[in-house]
């Protein structure tokens, strides 16, 4: 493998295994509640995105974004709604994802 093969992958932002475990834990609970059915992961130079779908062919209900450049400012994690509104932003992924868990409590009631 030469340098050209690895450079594009290394230049992208990715979720680490621990981050994915936290996200997939919330995702699994929402799937069990019947709220979510599919997801997609995208990696770009400045952002990694975990998109959540109610159905495969729709626009994402939520996007969980990781933007390392905002680490020292507003926080690198954000949950964004279908309309593009930022629902929660912060430095702690678990804290940011609590906004989705509140929706799980409403779905069960």
Automatic annotation (TrEMBL):
Q: Which domain of life is it from?
A: Bacteria
What protein name does the entry list? DUF2794 domain-containing protein
- What phylogenetic lineage does the species belong to? Bacteria, Pseudomonadati, Pseudomonadota, Alphaproteobacteria, Rhodobacterales
């Amino acid at each position: 493998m030469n340098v050209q093969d690895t450079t594009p992958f290394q230049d992208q932002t990715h979720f680490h295994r621990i981050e994915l475990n936290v996200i997939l834990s919330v995702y699994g609970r929402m799937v069990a509640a019947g709220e979510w059915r599919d997801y997609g992961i995208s990696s770009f130079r400045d952002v990694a995105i975990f998109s959540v779908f109610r159905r495969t062919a729709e626009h994402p209900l939520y996007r969980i974004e990781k933007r390392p450049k905002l680490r020292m400012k507003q926080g690198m994690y954000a949950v964004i709604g279908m309309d593009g509104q930022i629902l929660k932003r912060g430095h702690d992924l678990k804290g940011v994802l609590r906004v989705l868990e509140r929706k799980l409590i409403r779905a069960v009631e």
